Amino acid sequence: MNTMVCQTCNTSLETVANFCPNCGTSIKKTKLKERNEHLNLVIAFYIVMLVFLIANYFLYQESSSLVQEIATESVFALIIVGFTFFDFKNIIKLYRFPKVDLLALIGYLLIPFASAFVVYYSVEFINVQLSEETYNYYLGYIDYPNPMFWAILFIAIFPPIFEELGFRGFLYNQLNKITSTKVTIILTAFIFALVHFSIISLLWIFPFGLLLGYLRHKYNTLWIGMIIHFIHNFIVLYLDYYYFDSTLLEF
Fold this sequence. Notes:
Blueprint: E1 3-5, E2 12-14, H1 27-62, H2 66-84, H3 88-92, H4 102-131, H5 147-176, H6 181-194, H7 199-219, H8 223-249
Antiparallel strand pairs: 1-2
Helix pairs in contact: 1-2, 2-5, 4-8, 5-6, 5-8, 6-7, 7-8
């Protein structure tokens, strides 16, 4: 039978109870308090992320340097890690390796290969049609020493680690305490897409987030999502590198 603990006297309670038999505390009020705490954490997470991303956007309007990039990524990582301490015991469980059928795993790992190419060329096409311009992620690192190292670190490694921890770890756990799993997957995917500040990216990041949320729910782990996220980002980065290098060879 499912049980819960009275927040006042720590007595184990049946979930059907309305009052604690030991101290008389209203269980409904306790549940409402817990729900509000989870909701407040969700709101706090989104506000902090929003403020960080807006500030970061304006900072990059002025200039960009390797030191600034390292500082920005470090602050982002600290924000995510800071929030995870509110739910550390549950989040640490998400780093257990799950039992996955080999054929299913191969199928999951093929998804980012397909998604990377589809997203890269479709977004490229849309950008050209709307603005006659393209954006190359690798180009943003070309002035740094060892540009490919930093590009891989900040595009292919950092996002899968910390975005999955933040959105499919902390945020997912908090939302799942106050709403259904289905709604949780949709909301985490939607917020994940929103913080990327791009209408065009919203078209693919949202369904990508739905996939990552589904896999996090199905296997109760972050590992599969992190690997898929890494493969997708790495291939997109490599395509940017390939076409950037190709344009140089034309001159």
